[in-house]
Amino acid sequence: MKDRALSTIGLWVVVGLVIWVGGFFSVAEQASFGLLALIICAAQYEFYQLVRAIPGVGRPHLSGIVAGFALHFGLFFLAAEEARSNYLLTGGALLVGLHLLSLLRHPGEVPTLLRRFPTLYGFAYLPFMLASLIAIARMKDGHLLTAQSVGLYYVVWVFVATKFTDVGGLLFGVPFGKHKIAPTISPAKSWEGCIGGLAASAGASALFAWLLRDGFSISFMVPWKAAILALPIAVLSIPSDLIESVFKRLAGAKDSGATIPGIGGALDLIDSMVLTSPVALILLSYFLDWAKRG
User: Fold this and answer.
1) What's the confidence (pLDDT) of residue 174?
2) What is the spatial distance between Cα 52 and Cα 69, in angstroms, rounded to a whole number?
3) How many domains does the chain contain in total?
4) What whole-number distance in Å separates Cα of residue 272 and Cα of residue 230?
5) Residue 53 · residue 253 · CB < 8 Å
6) How far apart are CA 289 and CA 127, in angstroms?
């Protein structure tokens, strides 16, 4: 547990610093996009390796990774308003998300779509769902005092709200967890850990907004609003993490990789972002528009 918590915090601190710096320098902003795209590509590759071990699933093609990067590249160079108003992206993510949630009802069954179209499935599961992060990174806000793009800071906030749910779940679930959520999918997850995760997510999000209160004057992201908006993100991060556990159990694997101590691979690192990213895009788009009208 200690290695996992330290690795999670350390990695996302690094990611957060890179994205934070990206708000000041245009080159660093592009480097931040490159880092996000690299992590997602690595996670998609690990997913393809994972599904190859599932009986009855066809061999996925790496062309899915190329298509995912092309999607992110295109979104990154769209105007911020176009990226935010992309109803096709959010609507499609809703449909994919509902399908992914349905996997939790029958965790021992291989989805028909995965069996027949593994390449397309991996594209929809990771780069398509996580494309919302790229759209968020391109958001603009005239209230930001020290940078042209507020989106990079919102990306950090989504990371904080999502990943601190995992950290809080570990810190509370290990000593206090008695009532299991889904023992056949992830025996370690408990309702007590979920409560701790929600509290940690809200607290960390409020702290993040408080730290930005002077230098970055983000329009509506005051601490109490940041804490409230973090709650739906935190709630969705839990089934998002369970979905990856379904795939790992089908493949008979404990982790998607072994490159990060206590965590596993890139897919293990961002699995909880799959459902939270599209919802964060919807929430932030609505409240940014609301703040500007106000």
Assistant:
1) 77
2) 21
3) 1
4) 14
5) yes
6) 26
**How many Å is the maximal CA-CA distance in the chain?**
56
Residue 292 has pLDDT above 50, yes or no: yes
How does residue 264 score in pLDDT terms, banded at 50, 70 and 90? low
The three-state secondary structure class of 182 is strand
Answer whether 0.70 is exceeded by the pTM. Answer: yes
- Dist CA 189 CA 276 (whole Å): 18
Where does residue 61 rank: exposed (0-12), middle (13-18), buried (19+ CB within 10 A)? middle
| Percent of the chain surpassing pLDDT 70 | 74
Tokens of 238: 């839990």
* DSSP letters spanning 205-234: HHHHHHHTTTTT--SS--HHHHHHHHHHHH
Place of tokens 């509506």: 220
CA 139 – CA 144 distance, rounded (Å): 11
- For residues 269 and 260, the answer to whether their CB atoms sit within 8 Å is yes
Going along 5-116, which residue ranges are E strands? none
* Collapsed DSSP state (helix, strand, coil) of residue 142: coil
Closest by CA to 58, choosing from 123, 115, 126, is 115
Q: Which range marks the domain in which residue 205 is found? A: 2-293
| Identity at 39, one-letter amino acid code | I
